[in-house]
């Protein structure tokens, strides 16, 4: 899962980015609204963590703009504004959750997982697709309770497909999720991961269609 963190605190930001990545979220971090707008226009994210007090404006303006543009990306407000009126405004304007600083990192991560799950219509961190089960939190794949060892990039690609089981996912969408700012993209990364996954899960586990991309069955 790929998330965008908008946080201008140069002490808090790196620690939160590290914590999110340890929890399995591929995280891009920016400190301004202007940069966030550019990143949202050029990449896809599974969720947005939004501070409100930013150097070039109020994060609430971005929240309002996205919702008025009918952007459905899950948004979690993470801010020092703890008064009741601010919480009500944030939720009424379309925030999926509102977390005040200081926060417990484990709780914030759990809330983020819940927000992302809801956006995919899921009720659990355990995703079933075909004959398999993927534990997103534990990053483990099993078939009939037998664990199938996968490497990090294989897990990332499979997670993207499993969260969208029954739907086509393009190669570009996968690349945009597993790479930061499109940097370091290798032309055969996705194909290599899919090839390895088919060897471990079976040839029919992932299907391909020219012009559409990849898909796993529900």
UniProtKB/TrEMBL annotation:
<dbReference type="GO" id="GO:0000976">
    <property type="term" value="F:transcription cis-regulatory region binding"/>
</dbReference>
<dbReference type="InterPro" id="IPR001867">
    <property type="entry name" value="OmpR/PhoB-type_DNA-bd"/>
</dbReference>
<dbReference type="Pfam" id="PF00072">
    <property type="entry name" value="Response_reg"/>
</dbReference>
<feature type="modified residue" description="4-aspartylphosphate">
    <location>
        <position position="51"/>
    </location>
</feature>
<keyword id="KW-0804">Transcription</keyword>
<dbReference type="GO" id="GO:0006355">
    <property type="term" value="P:regulation of DNA-templated transcription"/>
</dbReference>
<dbReference type="GO" id="GO:0000156">
    <property type="term" value="F:phosphorelay response regulator activity"/>
</dbReference>
<keyword id="KW-0597">Phosphoprotein</keyword>
<feature type="DNA-binding region" description="OmpR/PhoB-type">
    <location>
        <begin position="124"/>
        <end position="218"/>
    </location>
</feature>
<dbReference type="Pfam" id="PF00486">
    <property type="entry name" value="Trans_reg_C"/>
</dbReference>
<keyword id="KW-0805">Transcription regulation</keyword>
<feature type="domain" description="Response regulatory">
    <location>
        <begin position="2"/>
        <end position="116"/>
    </location>
</feature>
<keyword id="KW-0963">Cytoplasm</keyword>
<dbReference type="InterPro" id="IPR011006">
    <property type="entry name" value="CheY-like_superfamily"/>
</dbReference>
<keyword id="KW-0902">Two-component regulatory system</keyword>
<dbReference type="InterPro" id="IPR039420">
    <property type="entry name" value="WalR-like"/>
</dbReference>
<feature type="domain" description="OmpR/PhoB-type">
    <location>
        <begin position="124"/>
        <end position="218"/>
    </location>
</feature>
<dbReference type="InterPro" id="IPR036388">
    <property type="entry name" value="WH-like_DNA-bd_sf"/>
</dbReference>
<keyword id="KW-0238">DNA-binding</keyword>
<protein>
    <recommendedName>
        <fullName>Transcriptional regulator</fullName>
    </recommendedName>
</protein>
<dbReference type="GO" id="GO:0005829">
    <property type="term" value="C:cytosol"/>
</dbReference>
<dbReference type="GO" id="GO:0032993">
    <property type="term" value="C:protein-DNA complex"/>
</dbReference>
<dbReference type="InterPro" id="IPR001789">
    <property type="entry name" value="Sig_transdc_resp-reg_receiver"/>
</dbReference>
């Amino acid at each position: 899962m790929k998330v965008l963190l908008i946080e201008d605190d140069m002490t808090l930001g790196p620690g939160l980015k590290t914590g999110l990545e340890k929890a399995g979220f591929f995280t891009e971090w920016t400190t301004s609204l202007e940069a966030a707008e550019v990143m949202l226009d050029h990449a896809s994210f599974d969720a947005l963590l939004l501070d409100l007090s930013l150097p070039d404006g109020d994060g609430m303006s971005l929240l309002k703009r996205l919702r008025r543009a009918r952007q459905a990306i899950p948004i979690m407000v993470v801010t020092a504004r703890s008064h009741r009126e601010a919480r009500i405004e944030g939720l009424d304007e379309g925030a999926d959750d509102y977390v005040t600083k200081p926060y417990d990192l484990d709780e914030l991560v759990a809330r983020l997982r819940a927000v992302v799950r809801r956006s995919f219509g899921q009720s659990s961190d355990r995703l079933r697709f075909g004959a398999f089960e993927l534990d997103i939190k534990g990053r483990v794949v099993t078939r009939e309770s037998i664990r199938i060892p996968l490497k990090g990039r294989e897990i990332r690609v499979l997670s993207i497909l499993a969260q969208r089981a029954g739907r086509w996912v393009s190669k570009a969408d996968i690349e945009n999720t597993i790479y930061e700012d499109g940097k370091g993209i290798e032309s055969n990364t996705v194909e290599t991961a899919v090839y390895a996954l088919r060897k471990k899960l079976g040839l029919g586990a992932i299907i391909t269609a020219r012009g559409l991309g990849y898909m796993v069955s529900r």
